[in-house]
């Protein structure tokens, strides 16, 4: 089966790792590590995993986790900046945190808040926490999100990053069957150039891209 990179669509890739359940390929163009399409879960299988999540705004521990992105992005926003939380999940929380800070928010999730009308708006910032590793078509989705940003707008992402082939073999992140795309700093730098955005890495699992 011909495999192309789900981020840049290149067919130039090489085996990166294999475990008991899946193969992992690395794109030679954008550096993304990805699971072949035929080894992904079905949408019903995906949702069954997500339904087990018990996140909520009342969970102080979850708020502390999200603060890794929230604190770094909120400090860069103008008062009243309008945002979209993409992939909000079954218990939207980051959007609540931004609303508490005075930022009007829209939310979107393909399973739990599938109103695609919000994907036609214009936003000062967009967040996606623990989302990009789940995307079957990250090139298309991230390009669409970047197109929703106002000039100077921010795309704030949280995802753990690929460090090395050696670390990958024992990485807990690949054990989640819904994780199918794994980004490195090199991948995000490629993406930023492709989208004409500036990129910074303010924390180990936080990436901020700003529309020029």
Structure, explained:
The protein has 212 residues and is α/β, with parallel strands linked by helices. It has one domain: Rossmann fold, CATH 3.40.50. Helices cover 26% and strands 25% of the residues. The strands form 2 sheets. It has a 6-stranded mixed β-sheet with strand order 5-4-6-7-10-9, with helices on both faces. Strand 1 and strand 2 form a beta hairpin. The longest helix has 15 residues. The protein is globular. The termini are far apart. The mean pLDDT is 97.
Give the low-confidence spans: none
- Corresponding CATH superfamily: Vaccinia Virus protein VP39
Query: What class, by secondary structure content?
Result: alpha/beta
**What form results from the Cα inertia axes?**
globular
What would you say the CATH architecture is?
3-Layer(aba) Sandwich
* Overall number of strands: 10
On the 0-100 scale, what is the average pLDDT?
97
Main beta sheet strand tally, sense and closure: 6 strands, mixed
Total individual domains:
1
CATH topology: Rossmann fold
The residue fraction in helices comes out at 25-40%
Distance between the termini: 39 Å
The first-level CATH class name: Alpha Beta
Radius of gyration using CA atoms only: 17 Å
**How much of the polypeptide forms β-strand, as a percent range?**
25-35%
String of helices and strands: EEEHHEHEEHEHEHEE
| Widest sheet: strand ordering | 5-4-6-7-10-9
GO molecular function: methyltransferase activity
Protein name: Putative methyltransferase associated with DUF414
Keywords: Methyltransferase, Transferase
Pfam families: Methyltransf_23 (PF13489)
């Amino acid at each position: 089966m011909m495999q192309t990179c789900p981020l840049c669509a290149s067919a130039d890739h090489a085996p990166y790792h294999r475990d008991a359940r899946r193969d992992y390929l690395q794109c030679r163009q954008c550096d993304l590590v990805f699971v072949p399409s035929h080894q992904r879960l079905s949408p019903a299988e995906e949702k069954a995993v997500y339904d087990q999540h018990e996140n909520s705004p009342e969970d102080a521990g979850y708020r502390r986790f999200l603060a890794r992105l929230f604190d770094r992005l909120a400090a860069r926003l103008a008062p009243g900046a309008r945002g979209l939380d993409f992939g909000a999940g079954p218990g939207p929380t980051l959007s609540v945190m931004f609303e508490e800070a005075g930022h009007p928010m829209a939310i979107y999730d393909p399973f739990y808040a599938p109103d695609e009308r919000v994907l036609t708006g214009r936003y000062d910032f967009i967040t996606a926490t623990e989302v990009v590793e789940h995307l079957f078509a990250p090139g298309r989705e991230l390009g669409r999100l970047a197109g929703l940003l106002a000039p100077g707008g921010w795309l704030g992402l949280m995802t753990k990053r690929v460090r090395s082939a050696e670390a990958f073999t024992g990485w807990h992140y690949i054990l989640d069957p819904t994780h199918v795309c794994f980004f490195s700093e090199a991948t995000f730098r490629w993406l930023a150039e492709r989208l004409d955005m500036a990129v910074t890495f303010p924390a180990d699992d936080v990436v901020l891209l700003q529309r020029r």
